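Lab notebook, bench 4. Still working through the backlog of constructs that have no structural model yet. Next entry is a single chain of 138 residues. Request: give me the structure tokens for it.
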Amino acid sequence: MKTLAQKQSAVKLLTEEFWSKNEIVNQPAKIEHSVNIIDKNGNYKIQVNAPGFKKDEFKIKIENGVLNIQAYTSDKKEEIKKNYVRKEFLTSSLARSFRLPEGIDVSNIKARYKNGRLYIKMGKANTVKQMNKKVKVQ
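Model written out:
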């Protein structure tokens, strides 16, 4: 016959084993949204590492000379087994802002999203133009 201490130890071991197997293995990785900025051939090009989003989840605006990039996504997963139900709510967000140099042609900014990367292209202008604009991601 097991003593109370042995029973408690067995329950503790099962509990620790359950949490260690599920919590660590299935923990979502932290995603770093790294950025490359390139000044080439009269254009600025910004490349943002942003896997896991859809192009319509991006909001890109220029306000008062600042380029704001935001994205948000969420998902729900549910696993139902004989003895338990496991639910996970996964969310991911991105927010980056960049002060633009003078002389950006904001009327002709293009953005596209492909293979987990957001590409933004901005041309340099000879004169300073309006500094507010929303950009649609292609």
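Notes after review: The chain has a mean pLDDT of 79. The two ends are 69 Å apart (CA to CA). Flag for follow-up if needed.
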